[in-house]
Specification:
- With 252 residues, this protein is an alpha+beta fold.
- Helix content is 38%, strand content 16%.
- It has eleven helices and nine strands.
- It has a seven-stranded mixed sheet with strand order 1-9-3-4-2-7-8, sandwiched between helices. A two-stranded antiparallel sheet has the order 5-6.
- Helix 7 packs parallel to helix 8.
- The two termini are 27 Å apart.
- The relative contact order is 0.18.
């Protein structure tokens, strides 16, 4: 079945907050006759507005300062934090979650200037924030270099201010190192990617300053587990796996 383009455009604004009780066919029906235009300019359907209003509030102040975290985690050598932006944060949690040595992941926002941003503010652009994931891991079981390897193989490094079907600097790819060692490792990994002959275009992924990480709303956390069907529809329609296979082959 051909999925209308507007279904994927809806995701860029409010599709993420839809409840699973809203039938997929109803959403597709709402798209009929509107199969043109770009992702960022989709009309926003008012579906389950009451449910959205209950879940859209930003989480309470559980902001993690990457700078302060570095000192406390290095001392124990049992828990450390890494922050990456690779486009849709729904799609960046799974590859880290399944990695041995990773304790937890959290979807959120980083790299901008607006404190306590909401999903609506970030997705609209202008906050400077990128959708990001914070990875809590045990350095004695998995190295930061391995996390970097997983990161690179789950993004399109040459895409400028976009990843796959999502466009705008809020979907840019970026690394937010915590401390000088992570920064050196990140720079070394980027140099290796730049030297890879498969890339003929400049590597667009930036190594940005250490940033405060703001957790996203609860309904975004582990979305691939909470809403597996909708997640798979989005991921397939966005062309993520197709592009990753083109770039990385079986190693993606």
């Amino acid at each position: 079945m051909l999925i209308p383009e507007c279904f994927w455009r809806m995701r860029a604004t409010r599709l993420r907050s839809f409840s699973l009780v809203v039938p997929l066919l109803a959403m597709l029906a709402a798209c009929s006759g509107s199969n043109s235009g770009g992702i960022a300019h989709a009309a926003v359907p008012e579906v389950k507005a009451n449910a959205t209003s209950q879940t859209d509030a930003a989480p309470a102040a559980s902001v993690v300062s990457a700078q302060s975290t570095a000192a406390t985690t290095t001392a124990t050598n049992e828990k450390a934090i890494a922050v990456f932006a690779g486009g849709c944060f729904w799609c960046m949690q799974p590859p880290f979650d399944k990695l041995a040595g990773v304790i937890s992941t959290e979807a959120g926002y980083a790299g901008g200037t607006q404190p306590n941003p909401t999903y609506e503010q970030v997705s609209a652009g202008g906050t400077g924030h990128a959708e990001a994931v914070q990875v809590t891991y045990n350095p004695s079981k998995v190295s930061y270099e391995k996390l970097l390897d997983v990161f690179w193989h789950n993004i399109d490094p040459v895409a400028v201010n976009r990843q796959f079907c999502d466009s705008g600097d809020q979907y840019r790819s970026a690394i937010f190192p915590i401390g000088e060692q992570q920064r050196r490792d990140a720079e070394a990994s980027k140099h290796a990617i730049e030297a890879d002959p498969r890339f003929r275009q400049p590597i667009a992924t930036k190594i940005e300053p250490t940033a405060t990480f703001y957790p996203a709303e609860d309904y975004h956390q582990e979305y691939y587990k909470k809403n597996p069907i909708r997640y798979k529809y989005y991921r397939y329609g966005c062309g993520r796996d197709k592009r990753l296979n083109e770039i990385w082959g079986d190693h993606g």
